């Protein structure tokens, strides 16, 4: 009897019926050619021998690398997987779907190419050295989902070492969109940015950056709260980042817990998770503003927030006023690249926030419309133009 061939077994795909997994099958991005190689002449120009002329020219004048390679329009999206979305420290491999998604958004919303890079190292020195060594390939570095307080030192050291934009989106992208939303929320409530009292729940990457940009924008009374209470100089448990922030905030001398700080506050900004009791929300000022940005569960559910606040924003797409970083980072890098900026300045971030806020005219601003939709086609061009202009103003733009 002749033996019959055995069909190879195919592993059962337990996610085959899940539309989300199907969308991610094989990844969400790919590399495509910007030129075509149709014959020997094309091949000789795109590769050897023609490419040698371009290499030699760049070796003689390194500034030509932006004009004759992809460097002028490509970002490295770099993580170590230690603070991924709301999932925490899930490691570099599990972080890759998020990094691919970030690269997709760069391209879709800003026309910026990017490469997701998940590093298998958490040591700050190793991380900085690795990114610095691969930096010649890229026009910018977008740091992503790196745990605090390590993220602050990593960003600082890379900015000092590299002459290309380095941007930690979890910090500054969030901060830009928060400020833009606040600009328009103030129009709704009729309050002035210099007169409001702000309470930020969370002293991680987003909380620190939001506090810094709000102070620069003119907020005079701001308190930051972490899991142990209000940041103030007398606390002995603060790391250097929190201690510096404590020195620059809390002019009212507050102490105690979040519920204590919320009494009379005009704006609650949540970037930490957890749940704020309704009785604490009820103690906020009249015409309060609540930006509860934790995902998927806001610190204050919108149904509760609307009972006590004039304006409510979340990080979710199924409620009005979504604070979404995609409103910021594609346009910011697009503008930085257009100006050939050596770095991203505080002025460029403020300009991005103002441009984003200005997309909603004063007569159109309303409690459920303080921030544009990510799908508004005006967003990335407006942000990019403002950022490029600010780069020239701040003296970080360079000849193309």
Q: List the secondary-structure elements in sequence, H or E.
A: HHHHEHEHEHEHEHEEHHEHEHEHHH
For the biggest sheet, the summary is: 6 strands, mixed
- Count of β-strands: 10
Oligomer state equals single chain
Low-confidence stretches: none
**Beta-strand level of the residues, as a percent range?**
5-15%
Structural class: alpha/beta
Strands ordered across the widest β-sheet: 7-6-5-8-9-10
Describe this structure in words.
It is a single chain. The protein is of the alpha/beta class and 400 residues long. Helix content is 42%, strand content 12%. It contains 16 helices and ten strands. The relative contact order is 0.10.
Relevant terms:
single chain, 400 residues, alpha/beta, four-stranded parallel β-sheet
What topology does this entry show?
Layout: H1 19-24, H2 40-46, H3 50-60, H4 65-68, E1 74-79, H5 91-110, E2 113-118, H6 124-134, E3 140-143, H7 150-161, E4 166-168, H8 169-189, E5 197-201, H9 205-217, E6 221-226, E7 229-230, H10 240-248, H11 258-261, E8 267-270, H12 278-281, E9 288-292, H13 302-308, E10 309-314, H14 329-338, H15 346-358, H16 379-393
Parallel strand pairs: 1-2, 1-3, 3-4, 5-6, 5-8, 8-9, 9-10
Antiparallel strand pairs: 6-7
Helix pairs in contact: 5-14, 6-7, 8-9, 8-15, 14-16, 15-16
């Amino acid at each position: 009897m002749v033996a019959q061939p055995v069909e190879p077994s195919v592993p059962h795909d337990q996610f085959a019926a899940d539309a989300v997994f199907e969308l991610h099958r094989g990844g969400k991005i790919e590399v495509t050619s910007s030129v075509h190689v149709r014959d020997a002449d094309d091949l000789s120009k795109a590769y050897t021998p023609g490419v040698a002329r371009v290499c030699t020219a760049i070796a003689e004048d390194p500034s030509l690398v932006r004009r004759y390679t992809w460097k002028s329009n490509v970002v490295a999206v770099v993580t170590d997987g230690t603070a991924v979305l709301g999932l925490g420290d899930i490691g570099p491999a599990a972080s890759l779907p998020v990094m691919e998604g970030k690269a997709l958004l760069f391209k879709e919303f800003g026309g910026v190419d990017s490469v997701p890079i998940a590093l298998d190292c958490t040591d700050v020195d190793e991380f900085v050295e690795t990114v610095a060594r691969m930096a010649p390939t890229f026009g910018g570095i977008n740091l992503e989902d790196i745990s605090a307080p390590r993220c602050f030192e990593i960003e600082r050291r890379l900015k000092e070492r590299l002459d290309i934009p380095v941007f930690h989106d979890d910090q500054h992208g969030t901060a830009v969109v928060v400020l833009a939303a606040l600009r328009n929320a103030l129009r709704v409530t009729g309050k002035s940015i210099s007169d409001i009292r702000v309470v930020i729940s969370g002293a991680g990457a987003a909380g620190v950056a939001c506090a810094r940009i709000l102070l620069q924008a003119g907020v005079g009374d701001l308190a930051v709260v972490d899991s142990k209470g209000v940041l103030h100089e007398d606390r002995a448990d603060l790391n250097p980042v929190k201690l510096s922030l404590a020195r620059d905030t809390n002019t009212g001398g507050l102490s105690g817990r979040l519920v204590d700080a919320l009494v009379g506050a005009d704006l609650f900004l949540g970037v930490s998770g957890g749940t704020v009791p309704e009785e604490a929300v009820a103690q906020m000022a009249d015409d309060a503003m609540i930006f509860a940005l934790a995902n998927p569960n806001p610190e204050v559910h919108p149904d509760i927030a609307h009972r006590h606040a004039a304006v409510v924003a979340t990080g979710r797409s199924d409620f009005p006023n979504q604070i979404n970083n995609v409103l910021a980072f594609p346009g910011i890098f697009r503008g930085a690249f257009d100006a050939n900026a050596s770095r991203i300045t505080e002025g460029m971030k403020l300009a991005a926030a103002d441009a984003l806020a200005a997309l909603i005219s004063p007569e159109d601003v309303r409690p459920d419309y303080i921030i544009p939709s990510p799908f508004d086609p005006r967003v990335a061009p407006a942000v990019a133009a403002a950022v490029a202009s600010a780069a020239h103003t701040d003296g970080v733009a360079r000849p193309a």
